[in-house]
Design goal:
By secondary structure, the protein is α/β, with parallel strands linked by helices. It folds into two domains: 2-107 and 220-256, Periplasmic binding protein-like II (D-Maltodextrin-Binding Protein, domain 2, 3-Layer(aba) Sandwich), CATH 3.40.190; 110-214, Periplasmic binding protein-like II (D-Maltodextrin-Binding Protein, domain 2, 3-Layer(aba) Sandwich). Helix content is 41%, strand content 20%. It has twelve helices and eleven strands. The strands form two sheets. The chain has a six-stranded mixed beta sheet with strand order 2-1-3-10-4-11. The protein has a five-stranded mixed beta sheet with strand order 7-6-8-5-9, sandwiched between helices. Strand 1 (30-35), helix 3 (39-53) and strand 2 form a beta-alpha-beta unit. The two termini are 30 Å apart.
Length: 259
């Protein structure tokens, strides 16, 4: 819990605890709060679900930490799908999950990316070409004290022994998709994102994948937020675990854990 409290403190420093639900969320049958890295896959799954059932789903994407704080403060989420077991643990401890609804749904991998137009190959994270490619630019990554992708990234850099060299050059963003956007727009020469993010953006290339031993396992747990009693909510929660959704997740670069 001390670790979560530290992450919450880091999150509050951003000053972005927007709570007002948008019109789409108020009008929809189901509201899902999901990690920003899930955007492409969940939008495709939503379209399939809505076409099949006629029920509507509102998707709210942000850093997992911000979404968790919004839920504790009363935001109208029905389903929570973060990129962090820690933030799901936090909501569970605070009594914000439907008992027995938590599942480990997906996994992911962490990668170093560069703009396709300027990428130069590197041969390992100790290759001097990495710092040379960064030059006077910034390494884009999500908030390292609050957002899962940033926390995983900092851990990986520390375990590789290069955090101290790179820390002064890091540009932190509210979520992993914002870091991806900086690299794709060539506003940052390097970035740390999930493998699924890199796959979704043709303007970037993967220079290297971080060894899984350098960071905690990347897991996307799924759970219902009380009261979550309507048939539409339960139907979409179930749909996310069914083969048609699993195939979309796989095609988007995620590892499917809930078979």
């Amino acid at each position: 819990m001390a670790r979560i409290c530290h992450m919450i403190a880091g999150l509050l420093l951003t000053g972005v605890l927007a709570l007002a639900p948008n019109r789409e969320a108020r009008a929809a049958d189901v509201t899902v709060f999901a990690a920003a890295s899930l955007k492409n896959a969940l939008e495709e799954i939503r379209a399939d679900f809505e076409a099949t059932t006629g029920q509507t789903v509102a998707l709210s994407f942000a850093g997992s930490s911000l979404l968790a704080r919004q839920i504790t403060l009363g935001a109208p989420a029905d389903i929570y799908l973060p990129a962090s077991a820690d933030w799901m643990d936090y909501l569970q401890t605070e009594g914000h999950l439907v008992a027995g609804s938590r599942r480990d749904l997906l996994g992911n991998r962490l990668v170093l990316i560069a703009p396709r137009s300027s990428a130069q190959p590197i041969f390992g994270f100790d290759d001097p070409a990495l710092l040379a490619q960064l030059g006077q630019g910034r390494l884009a990554m999500a908030l390292v004290t609050a957002v899962p992708a940033g926390i995983y990234g900092k851990s990986a850099l520390q375990n590789l022994g290069i955090w101290q060299d790179l820390a002064p050059k890091i540009a932190q963003t509210d979520n992993v998709r914002a870091a991806l956007a900086l690299v794709a727009a060539e506003e940052a020469p390097l970035g740390i994102v999930y493998a699924s993010d890199a796959q979704a953006e043709p303007r970037v290339v993967v220079l290297a994948e971080f060894p899984q031993s350098t960071h905690a396992p990347i897991r996307y747990p799924l759970a219902l937020i009380p009261p979550a009693k309507t048939p539409a909510i339960l139907a979409f929660y179930t749909y996310l675990q069914q083969p048609v959704a699993q195939e979309v997740f796989r095609a988007a670069g995620f590892d499917v854990l809930a078979e």
